[in-house]
Amino acid sequence: MNIVTDAKSQLTPEASLLATHPTANGILTVDLDAIIANWRKLEKTAVPAECAAVVKANAYGCGAEQVSRALAKAGCKTFFVATVEEAAVVRAAVPEATVYSLGGFFQNTGDAYARIDCKPVIGDLNELAEWDVFCRRSGWSGGAAIHIDTGMNRLGLTVSEAQGIIPRINAGDHGITLVMSHLASAELLNSPANARQLASFREIASLFAGVPASLANSSGVFLGAPFQFEMVRPGCALYGVNPTPEADNPMQPVVDLKARIVQIRNIDRGETVGYGGTWTARRPTRLAIVSAGYADGYFRAASANDGTRGAEVVVAGKRCPIAGRVSMDLIAVDVTDLDKNAVRRGHMVTLIGEGITVDEVAHHFGTIGYEVLTSLGRRFVRIYKGGDAVAARSDATAEKSEPAAAEKSETAAPATPVAPPALPTAAPAAPPPLPAEPTPPSA
């Protein structure tokens, strides 16, 4: 169910939505203008490199369709996803963009890539050989990226394997549109691993004559110009996660998560709360029972007990602590110190937002902001603010001031995920086939 709220309404977004969707127990608001502002900041930091956008995992839980469309309007031309299915969503949203899939290439997947004009990121010699076979057979030459492992030890050709395909590059029509690697410790400014990976990647990238290179992720953008090459690939920073955890967060917050109070109850001193009775009231206590839990991505690790203070939420503008264990669908919050008239059944409390950052929540969850965002549940109704009236892309090399905020609009998306669009049946027109594949170097 799609719900459009009036951007000029005097009601708050949650009140406006609840007026038309009264069964919503939780509301996740995604600020597309903030995502655009974060992309522009990253773009300016990386000038003259191109600033792509990583929108895998449904744009880190924020909505790949909406985020991709907003960023494309702002000037982003290249997007990275993890799977072909994710690529189909982005392609439908931004038909003219360049889309890479980080998930690699497998035999018999070529047609799926070609139908949506998606470029595979190849990190294995077997993948490269299979891709070459497909390109020769089909005549498709949409291009691919080569992923080289420089120290992550996860995906990618080894440096020696990459050196072995240099004759292919020198042959001319090689079909490689990007050479890339991935930093393992970019968030640690002084990690020696960064310098080692940079040296290794710089050496091998120099051999790929005329092929754009990309190394920097979100944190890597802030390591400086030597790491930026021709393209940077920020992900989490677009969505407000701090890419520089050793310093203040340079990014704008993007998500606001609210859940409804379903009951108010009073307990006596000495009574316990929640599963296991791990939290004991030290005074007569007033509790607000909130309709969110670990099934919604609000982790059980945020629980409080008699010896440990858990996470906090914002109720009526003030921070209040969780009481007891987070359960599957519910959280108990101690609201004893608030005015009784300020807290009522049906009111919304803020789980993320109003000063509670994704990174703070991640700290209580014992994880990172990436996992918080990608775990936010399907039961939340999603509202998208802004992004529909995006100003023309500024010249990042000349304009240093932040662009004026675009007029905001608000659109609520369905609480359940939307199925990806059907893949087109016709492949794009094919340029001449690639030359015969090179003989892979011996391991």
From TrEMBL:
Known InterPro entries for this protein? Answer: Ala_racemase, Ala_racemase/Decarboxylase_C, Ala_racemase_C, Ala_racemase_N, Ala_racemase_pyridoxalP-BS, PLP-binding_barrel
Q: Where is the signal peptide?
A: none
Q: Which EC number(s) are documented for this chain?
A: 5.1.1.1
Q: Which Pfam families match?
A: Ala_racemase_C (PF00842), Ala_racemase_N (PF01168)
Ranges for the region named Disordered are: 392-443
Molecular function GO terms recorded: alanine racemase activity; pyridoxal phosphate binding
Q: Which family does it belong to?
A: Belongs to the alanine racemase family.
NCBIfam families, alphabetically? alr
Q: Which PANTHER family match?
A: ALANINE RACEMASE (PTHR30511), ALANINE RACEMASE, CATABOLIC-RELATED (PTHR30511:SF0)
* Identification of the protein by name: Alanine racemase
